[in-house]
Amino acid sequence: MITLIATTGRGSLDIYAQKLAEHLDVPKLYTDIYHKVAELFNVPFLSPDAVRACWQDWHFVRMLNKLDSIVHLSNHHLGRYGFFLKVPYIITVHDLIRYFDLKGYGIFIHHPNLRDRFYLSLDYKGVKKATRIIAVSQTTKHDLVKHLGILEEHISVVYEGVDHQLFKPTSRRLLDYPYILFVGSEHPRKNLVRLLKAFFKLKSERRFKDLKLVKVGKAGGREAEFRRHTLQVINELNIPQDVVFTDYVSEGDLVAYYSGAGCFILPSLYEGFGLPVLEAMACGCPVIVSNRASLPEVAGEAAIKVDPCDTYGIAGALRQVLTDGNLKQELILKGLERARQFSWQKVARQTIEVYDSVEKAMANNCYKAGTN
């Protein structure tokens, strides 16, 4: 028997856990522990919040160890608890973004402080100790092998899915002006600054004078002033009246934003999967993505791909989609077909296959650690 540990919350990792839980007929344990983890990035080691978190962490590990089953931890930041488990566990790894920050490969989200370095190190030790790893893309699998030394045979790739009952074209409109759409945080890896600069180039052309850039999603956690940096760039470009922030929106409103957009763009420097790409496609919105990490893998041939470091190239792709009706229609049709290849029912079915293989291996005493 396998118990899924599903995290509550509104983040992308939480959405994965909750959608998977809806479609899996297995025991589930719902927890807000990851929400608490995310709120404590960049908190000092000896702060009152950090001390309280130690007690919560210890209690959560005790609870998991009392489960009479294999455990499926639904995201890699739960690896810090897996490291202390006595029961076998599966873990889903969505990306190694925080690992890259930890190792100083760049600033993808935020440079970790001492406490973050300790806990992130535990996360990845927990990943390496797992009985089996589920990676949400071939890109993430490749990163696990390259950076953590995980054996390929201990990693199963199971793509994320789209809720097609919800994400589909709608005639409902929330805005009465033309806009391009960006959905996500304002972390450095999201590359929003270059998108803003590309948008500024478009606004210099008279035909785009009414065009807006709509940004859906919160700025990010409390660990850095992501929004302040974004606003600083917007003010330097003198386009504050042309950029619209919605922060968090309901799924129903998100569908309307996708459906009404001239195009959706995700020019990220790194994504472990990039679910908004498929959501936009499912809503009949033409898509532009960067040519980095998992985005070409997820989008297939149904999106225009751009160099995320080329501001002129980003502006050119936007201009092309917004002015070429034939291209736009082609992207819409290809996107709808591409999105149909991903569903949560398929995710659940493939996850059960992983469960079955792990249970079979455990029954035959074939369990080994996943690293070289």
Helix and strand sequence? EHEHHEHEHHEHEEHEHEHEHEHEHHH
Number of helices: 15
Q: Major sheet, described briefly?
A: 6 strands, parallel
Main-sheet strand order equals: 2-1-3-4-5-6
Total strands: 12
**End-to-end separation:** 28 Å
Which descriptor suits the 3D outline? globular
CATH 2nd-level architecture of the largest domain? 3-Layer(aba) Sandwich
Textual characterization of the structure:
The mean pLDDT is 95. It contains 15 helices and 12 strands. It folds into 2 domains: 2-161 and 343-363, Glycogen Phosphorylase B (Rossmann fold, 3-Layer(aba) Sandwich), CATH 3.40.50; 179-339, Rossmann fold. The relative contact order is 0.13. A 6-stranded parallel sheet has the order 2-1-3-4-5-6. Helix 1 (12-23) links the parallel strand 1 and strand 2 (28-31). The protein has 372 residues and is of the alpha/beta class.
Write the layout of secondary structure elements.
Elements: E1 2-7, H1 12-23, E2 28-31, H2 33-39, H3 48-65, E3 70-73, H4 79-82, E4 89-93, H5 97-103, H6 114-129, E5 132-135, H7 138-148, E6 155-157, E7 179-183, H8 192-203, E8 212-216, H9 226-237, E9 243-247, H10 251-260, E10 263-266, H11 275-282, E11 287-290, H12 295-299, E12 304-306, H13 311-323, H14 325-339, H15 344-363
Parallel strand pairs: 1-2, 1-3, 3-4, 4-5, 5-6, 7-8, 7-10, 8-9, 10-11, 11-12
Helix pairs in contact: 1-15, 8-9, 8-13, 11-14
Task: Give the structure's gist in a few sentences.
With 372 residues, the chain is of the alpha/beta class. The protein is built from 15 helices and 12 strands.
